[in-house]
Amino acid sequence: MKSVLPAKIAKLAERVVAENKAAGRMIATAESCTGGLVAAAITEVPGSSAVLESGFVTYSNESKMKMLDVNADILDTFGAVSVAVAWAMAQGALKKSGADIAVAISGIAGPDGGTEKKPVGTVVFAVAEKGKDAEDMVGDKIQFGSDKSRADIRNYATLHALGLLLPPAP
Predict the structure, then answer these.
(1) Which of 6, 110, 118, 169 is the one with CA 20 to 30 A from 77?
(2) Are strands 27-31 and 101-107 parallel, antiparallel or unpaired?
(3) Strand 122-129 to strand 27-31: parallel, antiparallel, or no bridges (unpaired)?
(4) pLDDT tens per residue, range 8-38
(5) Helix, strand or coil for residue 67?
(6) Are 27 and 101 in contact (CB under 8 A)?
(7) Residue 36 — left, alpha, or beta (φ > 0 → left; ψ -120 to 50 → alpha)?
(8) What is the CB-side half-sphere exposure of residue 15 using CA atoms within 13 A?
(9) Quick one: which of 96, 152, 165 has its CA closest to 126?
(10) Does position 170 have pLDDT exceeding 90, yes or no?
């Protein structure tokens, strides 16, 4: 399949579409630092409309609150780049879309914006699934490295998020 995205991302997106289609699952994405790359990767695949319900690009804190109902207190307490905020984004995307599974991504792709506690390359992820207890969520915080380019960090984050959307092996 010819894609505008790197081959590794395109190949994983094909798997995500095929396996979620076979599982009968609809997907939603809630993206910040990836700016819609996860949804874009999925829509590169013919037949993706069978699995992609919606994608939310919520780059600012205001859009996270307005579009995904992320509570301002969570943002103020933990910051946008936190598993708590990613969890709230995933829950909001699941609720707003009616999808079966939602993945959320927030991070610092750089080259600016990093701090000592959250350096450039820090990305957080969360997954929410319909019918599962909200407290039983999957969350990750990955430090991809401040030595990586903005493009590399966004690509690594996209790959990781796509991997989180794969159904469990039978």
Answers:
(1) 110
(2) parallel
(3) unpaired
(4) 999 999 999 999 999 999 999 999 999 999 9
(5) helix
(6) yes
(7) left
(8) 16
(9) 165
(10) no
Q: Are 90 and 17 in contact (CB under 8 A)?
A: no
Average pLDDT on 121-134 reads 93
Q: Which residue has the tokens 């905020």?
A: 85
Whole-angstrom Cα distance, residue 57 to residue 33? 9
**Average per-residue pLDDT for the chain:** 95
Between residues 170 and 168, the one the model is more confident about? 168
- pLDDT above 80 for 134: no
Cα–Cα distance measured from residue 24 to residue 27, given in angstroms and rounded to the nearest whole number: 10
Greater pLDDT, 133 or 46: 46
Token pair in block for residue 112:
């600016």
Q: Residue 53 is inside which H or E element, if any?
A: strand 52-57
- Name residue 120's amino acid: V
Burial of 156 (0-12, 13-18, 19+ CB in 10 A): buried
The residue type at 139? G
Q: What is the pLDDT of residue 101?
A: 97
Residue 52: HSE in the Cβ half-sphere, 13 Å Cα cutoff: 23
Q: Which two tokens stand for residue 116?
A: 């000592």
Q: Which two tokens stand for residue 127?
A: 């997954």
Contact 82, 75 (CB under 8 A): no
